């Protein structure tokens, strides 16, 4: 919305689609948020938000899905599989 790539209707549809996915919160992230995520953010010059995803993927043994080129480049450099 901020970059004018979608309107309210598309956002609403997308959020509805996302709510159908079997997404579960990671109970370990809060404990690592002040340490490991900060290290990943610093190492790859990422936002804490992106660093959290990069830190989570290999720990859960899942590939990272992103269209963000900086996050994708960081994932490749860290040896994290991408979708």
Tally of alpha and pi helices: 5
Overall 3D shape: globular
Number of strands: 0
Percentage of β-strand residues: under 5%
Structural class: mainly alpha
Q: Could you describe the largest sheet, including whether it forms a barrel?
A: none
Distance between the termini: 24 Å
Low-pLDDT segments, ≥5 res: none
Order of SSEs: HHHHH
Helix percentage range: 55-70%
Q: What's this entry about, in short?
A:
By secondary structure, the protein is an all-alpha fold. The protein contains five helices and no strands.
List the helices and strands and how they pair.
Elements: H1 8-19, H2 29-32, H3 36-44, H4 48-60, H5 69-78
Task: Explain how this protein is built.
This protein is mainly α. The chain is built from five helices and no strands. α3 packs across α4 (48-60).
List keywords for this structure.
globular; 83 residues; mainly alpha; 5 helices
């Amino acid at each position: 919305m901020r970059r004018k790539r979608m309107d309210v209707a598309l956002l609403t549809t997308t959020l509805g689609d996302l709510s159908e996915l079997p997404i579960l919160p990671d109970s370990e992230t809060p404990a690592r948020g002040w340490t490991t995520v900060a290290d990943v953010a610093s190492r790859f010059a990422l936002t804490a938000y992106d660093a959290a995803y990069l830190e989570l993927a290999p720990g859960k043994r899942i590939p990272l899905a992103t269209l963000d080129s900086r996050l994708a480049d960081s994932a490749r450099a860290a040896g994290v599989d991408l979708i």
